[in-house]
Amino acid sequence: MSHVIVINGPAGVGKTTVSRILARRHPGAINIAGDALRHFAPEDVRHTLWPGSTYRAGAALTTAYLTMGATKVLFEYIFDDAEKLDLFCSGLPDKTPVSVFTLWAPIDRVIDREANRVERERLGGMVLRTYQAIERNLHLLGQVVPNTETPELTAQTISEAIANPANIWPRPARGNERV
Predict the structure, then answer these.
(1) Domains in the chain with CATH codes
(2) Is a pLDDT exceeding 80 seen at residue 120?
């Protein structure tokens, strides 16, 4: 059965690293980076495609891979509130299981990680903005997974949790009602 795994967290927390490790641990898994999708959009994307276009595009690409037969699709991006998760999930095929994991670490550790990223653009104020937004909504954003040790240990924690049906995100119904 197909399964979508969302790797969420503030900018700089380690989503990309953990997602790459997870993809290697699950042969055949598709790994989609939301940041990569943003590079396709024009600078004025909010005015031309409306807000939420990356979530909708991510869902469309995820759906395409599921339709082609992928059994696991990882989508890593910043979901700072439950409405953005609902927007992403509403673009997926009905009854597709979705597990949501929000990576979390103390802000000083996240800032330090971001400052030491090799060959990647600095995120600046986005780190604190996304951290604070997610912190306000943390209780609504799936299973919180501490990313305070090694990325390998974080990936192992998520791999073990993926098999648990209790970790399925409560999908929105097609009529915008919560199930």
Answers:
(1) 3-167 (3.40.50.300)
(2) no
